[in-house]
Amino acid sequence: MAVRTISNTGGNWNAIGTWVEGAVPLAADTIVATATSGPLTINVVSSCAGADFTNYVSTLTVNFDFGIGGPAVFVPGMTISGTAYIALTGTSTVRTNGLVIPFLRFSGQNITRTLLDNMTVTNLLQQQGNQNPTISGSFTMSVTNFRTTGTGGGSYGWLNGAVPIVFNGPNCYYENTFTNQGITNHTIINTAGNFTISGTGSAAGIIALSTVFGTTAQLTYISGTVVGALNLSLYYGNNNSTTGIRLNTGSMGSKWSNIYIKDSTNITANSFNIINLLSPLRFDNMYITAMNNIPYTTIRRPIRFTGTSVLEGGTFSAQSQSINVNTTNLQTSLPAVIQFTPNAGTTHSFTNLNIIGSPNNKASIASTTASNVGLSFSNVLIYTDLSYAQAPSLTYVYGATISNTINFATASFGGGGGGESANTFVN
């Protein structure tokens, strides 16, 4: 590995005269700048093992992807221009010293970049290709715009780590189309302007959170006008966190159009997929499903709603649906189990409830005996075309109001909650 120094005249990356040593940097080389180094233009796809711009007061123009595989140091005296991305590709550290990075992406499978100070990024990109870069450190990353891309192959791509991602530009933009790609870091919306959600297809603009790395994914709303598609994906991965996914978005004002709760395979660490609500979660449609291509014999884990608040929603399709990988056209449904354990005296209300059971098992909705959670359902459909399925059960239910019910007579009510007599049925 050699060290290549930007010359006083500077120039294009691939020009010999750009470098004091008279040699264009290789991927294994480190580049450095001095106080007298001239402007550097990334005019071809380029990469290096590290970049130290300490004392640099000129301009770095990034017209093609620029990969940095090792330590990266930027300084406020320099300028970064161009519309191509700086890619942090290796396990190492990064220090920005307050410089705003216009276009940035983290890449590589299971690599960690440690922030040595707070980072500010205008455009942050996350790509597929089974890319799961980690951002660690005791600092924050401020972001104005975030988007995903399906390039790179693979089937997922998660940005993860302990560093919170704060959307706090004057107006922020979030673009995503994938339910299995997004941010697992604590994601915070705190803008003085609009937070615009966009994308294409049925899952346009989906904000995706995941426990695939065993951490507590969080979404917190503080301020900003949220506009556009309001879709939320909660992906429970193989190494699920014991505290699940935490949501504090009730003051957004608008309902989520669609909430997708996705259950992955080989999940045995905990007994529940946990959704921890710190404010009312308002929605039009909520779907509990298995991830595609999971064998139909795979047991789905129950969903547990915990925390200090409740659901206030529309259609709740509590069907744990999966695809038989041996017969891809055959769909089968496994029983969905939902449990509510928030504070005592709270009431979860649903405009519609659609629960599907399986031939030999019941789906169920329950609250614990201690919490006395009220459940309010209107237009309850117990099963659709699965006429052979057992009707679901509601257990330990306190103060439930069930109206406009279909095929509910075979459902069972019980438990020792002490409040069963308070239930009301309206036909």
Question: What report would you give on this structure?
Answer:
It contains no helices and 41 strands. It is mostly beta strands and 427 residues long. The protein has a domain of 106 residues. It has a 17-stranded parallel β-sheet that branches. Strands 23-25-27-29-31-35-37-39-41 form a 9-stranded parallel β-sheet, with no helix packed on it. Strand 32 and strand 33 form a beta hairpin. The chain starts with a strand and ends with a strand. The C terminus is likely disordered.
Largest sheet: 17 strands, parallel
Please state the CA-atom Rg, rounded to the nearest Å. 25 Å
Overall spatial form: elongated
Mean pLDDT: 78
- SS strand fraction: over 45%
Q: How many strand segments?
A: 41
- Helix- and strand-based class? mainly beta
Q: How is the quaternary structure best described?
A: single chain
Tally of contiguous helical segments: 0
Q: Would you identify the regions where 5 or more consecutive residues have pLDDT less than 50?
A: 320-333, 383-391, 404-427
Q: Give the end-to-end Cα distance, rounded to a whole number of Å.
A: 78 Å
The portion of residues assigned to helices is under 10%
List keywords for this structure.
mainly beta; 17-stranded parallel β-sheet
Briefly summarize what is shown.
By secondary structure, this protein is mainly β. The protein has no helices and 41 strands.
